Amino acid sequence: MAILLKFEGYPPAVVASVLMHLVLLLFVLGRNVSPSDYVTIEDPVIVTATAVDVNPQRLRRLERIEQEEAAAAQRRQQEQERARREQEQRERQVREARQAREQAEAEQRRQAEAERQRLAEAEAERQRQAEDARRRAAEAAAEEQRREQQRLAQEQAAREAQANQLASENMVVAEYASIIKRIISQNWQIPPGARNGMVATVELRLVPTGEVVGTTIIQSSGDAVFDRSVMQAVARADRFPELQDLDRGLFDRNFRTFTLVFRPEDLLR
Questions:
Q1: What is the mean pLDDT of residues 36-56?
Q2: What confidence tens digit (pLDDT) does each residue in 150-172 have?
Q3: Across residues 213-230, what is the average pLDDT?
Q4: Do 260 and 201 touch, CB atoms closer than 8 A?
């Protein structure tokens, strides 16, 4: 079968020639000949190989086989190259996915650390603000207490000063009121009908020079003669020059209008 396949496509004459040569060779080798029968035969020119090599059908078949093998080799190479590229792509995708995952995890850790730092800073700031608020509140309370103590001290000092001033003013008022009473009493002539229990209250209107510019009985004794004698005593006094030495405010508060009470028994003592 291999020989038939090998000679497939050769012309029949070539096949017949080969067969004839084989038969002749078998015939010669099978005979018993003497040396005298030997004939010198020159070596023939064998062209079989040449005829086989230039067979166009075999060449086309071999070329087709070579092309198919080359195409198959090229396909295998392309498939290997495609498999290599796919493997490289898968490995690259795996690396990229791993890098992306690592980057995402690193970013999550960074964000978590940043959030922890932010919360820590916010807590520290809150505590600082709370401490500042407590400190300011304590300082404000201390300042308020200091101001309250200062105010109380000032009020106490003012009350004491006012009390001292009032006491001093009362002493001055009492002194000048005593002068006025003494001067008017010296000019009062008690009427014969006056008796104990009679009381007449007179309001004097004075000016800073000490002059009496008005007199009014604001409480009558019930006896016209007694009341008239009181009015005459004030008229005789007329003026109290000692009042000129008084402070204007003190005069206005105490002597702009001055009330004087007349009792007969007061003069008799």
A1: 56
A2: 999 888 888 888 888 788 888 88
A3: 91
A4: yes
For residue 15 the two structure tokens come to 């096949």
Q: Is 197 helix (H, G, I), strand (E, B) or coil?
A: coil
Residue 81 amino acid letter: E
Nearest to 202 by CA among 218, 223, 189, 186: 218
**3-state SS class at 218:** strand
Where residue 250 falls (left for φ over 0; alpha for ψ -120 to 50; beta otherwise) is: alpha
Compute φ and ψ for 216, nearest 5 degrees.
-140, 135
Q: Which residues pair with 185 in a beta bridge?
A: none
Residue at 152: amino acid letter: L
| Selection from 192, 198, 191 nearest residue 233 by Cα | 191
- What the chain holds in terms of domains, given with CATH numbers, is 187-268 (3.30.1150.10)
State phi, psi for 202 to the nearest 5 degrees. Answer: -120, 140
Crossing angle of helices 56-186 and 224-237, in 10° steps, is 100
What is the number of other CB atoms lying within 10 angstroms of the CB of residue 250? 16
